[in-house]
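Q: What changes when zinc ion is included in the input?
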Amino acid sequence: MKSVRVPLSLQQAVMRTMRQKLALASDFLQKAFPEPSVTYQQRGTIAGSARLQDWEIRLNPVLLIENQQAFINQVIPHELAHLLVYYQFGKVAPHGKEWRFLMETVLKVPANRTHQFPVNSVRSKIFTYACHCQQHELTIRQHNKVIKGKSCYVCRQCGEKLILLEPT
Ligand SMILES: [Zn+2]
Ligand SMILES: [Zn+2]
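A: The predicted holo structure follows.
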């Protein structure tokens, strides 16, 4: 799998926000927290993840590069809050009341559970098919079954067989 290089300036912006948020948490909770390590290996449509035991935050390099500071402002506190919740409360519900408290009261950000960044460039490829009445989106798995003759998809509305639309 090809790896994506995150520009140094963007990595520095990540760490700047991380330290600001960590300082907020230290002030509020009267505790010094170790700085989490950050890696850029998150794949797919997920923006980031927190490795609780490793004290590590994994970021999606493609979504970071595409969304810049908006990504940092949202994803860094989100994942950092997961680590801090684990540190403070141990194993609790991932987006439960402890996490909401960390997000809203301590880190001063909205407690959004999911991100809204466009995922076109990181989504697994979608194939557009059509019948007589509408277009249908097939996943790469469904598409491959059609190609190999293992499946034939039929529209539930009009009963017609789906035909692949050539990409334009
Ligand atoms: Zn989360
Ligand atoms: Zn149809």
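Observations recorded in class: The mean pLDDT is 92.
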